[in-house]
Amino acid sequence: MLASLLASVMGTGLAAWPFARPAAAQEGWPDRPIRLIVPVAPGGSLDPLARLLARHLQASLGQPVVVENHAGAGGNIAFELVARARPDGLTLLVGWDSLAINPALYPRPGYDPLRDFAPILQTVSAAQLLVVRPGLPADTMEAFVSLSRSRALTLGSPGNGSIGHLAAELLKARSGAEWAHAPYRGGGPALQDLMAGHIDAVFLTLPAATAHVRAGRLRPLLVTSPGRARALPEVPAARESGLPEVEVVSWQGLLAPAGTPPAIIARLRAEAARILALDEVAGPLLEQGFEPSPGTPEALAARLAADVPRWRDVVRQAGVRLD
């Protein structure tokens, strides 16, 4: 079985990547519990999927998979922990966009997103959604831009440098809209203040706002996916609104420390992809606004390689600074 796994990995070209240094896969792996490191607090947007994966991986791998939440520093605490861990397949990271964004925000983030990790696969993707409070006199993106030029508006985000903040900066630059930015400590508090009428708009990941939109508590104006989202098909996509540069699709994925044996990477990728294809997993994810999108290690590596310069440029052009 080991030989076939190695042959499969070599066939995908993974061994050519510098982070996949040749190493002898351990017979009987995993022989100890696996740590699944999550860079947000329990209940955050990454946490539910991490626990879902952990439960199914534990059943298929025959060892406990323990979810550990290491929040703080925009995710850098968790990212550095995994970057410095032994590459034995027993410490894994649930990563997301901040892995690529943070090097542009922090002078010493403690890791290199392109050098210190071995990507396993992207698990899901989700667009950003611009939502406004129901009482705001703007039913379309055009009306919102016009309103922003005639009166002072406040747009919240999950925090300075978050994917929601950067999506908002892209929108401001491309549409000419104006607003005061109100950074929060996470999407939850921003959402609460929006529904209470304390701010006018928020950019959130689609799953965070879908239920509130369906209940009529929020009004959606724009989704940043290339096309309309299956979860909210009535909401225009950025391209339909003449804003193709504002296409922003968040991702979540699994990564291991650089140097993890290719055979272990291949096994983990196969198991995670199988789990994401289960009806009991894919159905609820789609309903929430996630798109299960399991790919190859190379695809996630390419995504990181593209995201690092993209977000660096947005951060510089918008003058984004941390508090």
Computed Rg:
20 Å
Major sheet attributes? 10 strands, mixed
CATH superfamily of the largest domain, please?
Bordetella uptake gene, domain 1
Cα separation of the termini = 51 Å
Enumerate the spans where pLDDT stays under 50 for 5 or more consecutive residues: 1-25
The beta-strand count equals 10
Tell me, what's the shape? globular
Query: Total number of helical segments?
Result: 11
What's the structural domain tally? 2
SS strand fraction: 15-25%
- Order of SSEs, N→C? HEHEHEHEHEHEHEHEEHHEH
Structural class from helices and strands?
alpha/beta
- The second-level CATH architecture of the largest domain is 3-Layer(aba) Sandwich
CATH fold-type name of the largest domain: D-Maltodextrin-Binding Protein, domain 2
Task: Tell me the name of the CATH class of the largest domain.
Answer: Alpha Beta
User: How confident is the prediction overall: mean pLDDT?
Assistant: 89
Helix share of residues?
Answer: 25-40%
Could you describe the 3D structure shown?
The protein is α/β, with parallel strands linked by helices and 323 residues long. The chain has 2 domains: 2-125 and 251-318, 3-Layer(aba) Sandwich (D-Maltodextrin-Binding Protein, domain 2), CATH 3.40.190; 127-246, 3-Layer(aba) Sandwich (D-Maltodextrin-Binding Protein, domain 2). 39% of the residues lie in helices and 19% in strands. It has 11 helices and 10 strands. The chain has helices spanning 2-12, 47-61, 76-83, 98-101, 141-150, 163-175, 187-195, 206-214, 262-276, 279-288, 297-318; strands spanning 34-38, 65-69, 91-96, 117-132, 154-157, 180-183, 201-205, 219-223, 249-257, 291-292. Strands 1, 2, 3, 4, 5, 6, 7, 8, 9 and 10 form a 10-stranded mixed β-sheet that branches. Helix 2 (47-61) links the parallel strand 1 (34-38) and strand 2. It is globular, with a radius of gyration of 20 Å. It starts with a helix and ends in a 5-residue tail after the last helix. Mean pLDDT is 89; it is low at 1-25.
